[in-house]
Amino acid sequence: MLWFKTNRVKLLTTLLLAAVAATMLLPFLWMLSTSVKKQIDVFHDPMIWIPASMQWNNYKEIWFGSHPFALYYLNSIKVTALSVIGVVVISSATAYGFARFQFKGKNFVFLIFLATMMVPDQVTLIPRFILFNYLGIYNTHWALILPGIFTAIGIFLLRQTYLTIPGDFSEAAKIEGANHFHIWTRIFIPLSKPAMVSLIILSFTWNWNEFVNPLVFLTSKKLFTVPLGLTNFVDDSGTNYPQMMAAAVSSILPVIALFLIGQRWFIQGVASSGIKG
């Protein structure tokens, strides 16, 4: 009897979560459906989920039409890839220092790092604008890449993971003659794969979807990233909803693909780091 009650609760919970998930997926499915429709069928009543004739020309116009969407993609790939590489290297090295080095004021410095998470990004826009203009990197991709490689969340996530690695590993490596660089690269990084993947997914998503910084620091259209190029396309296309949705689908696919590939490690990494919400 207890087994039946337990399984019934699990079944009801699963059905409830499935219903909630379905409602979350509806906007994406509508966007996907609209991207292959004719303009006249977008607001057809009743709604047509699967159009009789797939309009793949909407995607062709996006990628090879008057708007250089392929160039926006290349720009986003460049900015995101360099930012992710920088985040992983710098966050990992810094987290290793906080987790394994002992120095005066370590906890206070770490609290200062965490305190930066409470500062809204918009507060630093003007100082960064002045600084980037002075350094000569305004209206370049470096204005997006350099700030993107420093993140307190990445340092916190990896530090929490490194603290769970037994100190005996480090001591054994030191006896064998390994220095801190070898311990970091050959022990800590391989043992923290889930946290690393989590950081890569989070950093990729943040940088790929970033809109405010490109809007402020980029003025040349040839440097536009996907979010800025998408907004520019929407402003120019007016009410051409099928092409707008085709552009939106194209912009979100890399994030979905990356998450599906690394979701197992992502869940493990977030669980092991203690991050919630």
TrEMBL record:
It holds the Pfam family BPD_transp_1. The chain crosses the membrane at residues 70-96, 108-130, 142-162, 183-206, 241-261. Residues 73-262 form the ABC transmembrane type-1 domain. It is found in: Cell membrane. Belongs to the binding-protein-dependent transport system permease family. The lineage of its organism: Bacteria, Bacillati, Bacillota, Bacilli, Bacillales. GO terms for biological process: transmembrane transport. Signal peptide: none annotated. Keywords: Cell membrane, Membrane, Transmembrane, Transmembrane helix, Transport. This is Carbohydrate ABC transporter permease. It is a multi-pass membrane protein. It comes from the Bacteria. One of its GO terms (cellular component) is plasma membrane. It comes from Paenibacillus piri.
